[in-house]
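We modelled the chain as a single entity of 214 amino acids. Its sequence is:
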Amino acid sequence: MNYVLSMLPALWDGLQVTLTLFAITLSLAIPLGLLLALARVSRLGPLSALVNGYIWLMRGTPLLLQIFFIYFALPGMGITLPDFPTAVVAFVLNYAAYFAEIFRSGIQSVDRGQYEGAKVLGLNYTQTMRRIVLPQMVRHILPPMSNETITLVKDTSLIYVLALNDLLRAARLIVQRDFNTTAFVVAAVFYLLMTLVLTWLFQRLERHYARYDQ
């Protein structure tokens, strides 16, 4: 028990890095994903095609490869980012593409009759989206958003390749120092707790919006 307690400060420092990356990615990727989704379903053909290509590229290549590209390739173009901003950019660009597809699916799940009704009421496209479509979209996207958010928690461990001291790297350094894998078990408990909290939050949201279907 004393051994576990002795490693907690180092793991806590790593956990803060993990949570910071998670929070920044979520706060930036969700609004960016929504904008991409709106562009994807817009009637502007070239814009929709461009966004579709971006989503296809980001979802079709590994996140780890995207991290490497930003870290190693961009300096050759005269753009150099510190390690943590590199991770943020890679994660935001990647997850915005996934969230965009979730939002697109949610938008297209709204019955077309809702659009016709909005037109009868004299609402323009922006008003229709803001007042009618997006509020109804929320309850449809919660399950896939939950899955993607939980995946993000686990994907944060990929930043070990940038030598950032996240939760997993902090645990690995302890294991290498002490030749004892207990730190991995404790790190796994932290990841599971984060997943448990997110699952609970999304389940509450799903129950909240389910009331409007009754």
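As a brief sanity check on the tokenised model: The mean pLDDT is 90. The chain is about 80% helix and 0% strand.
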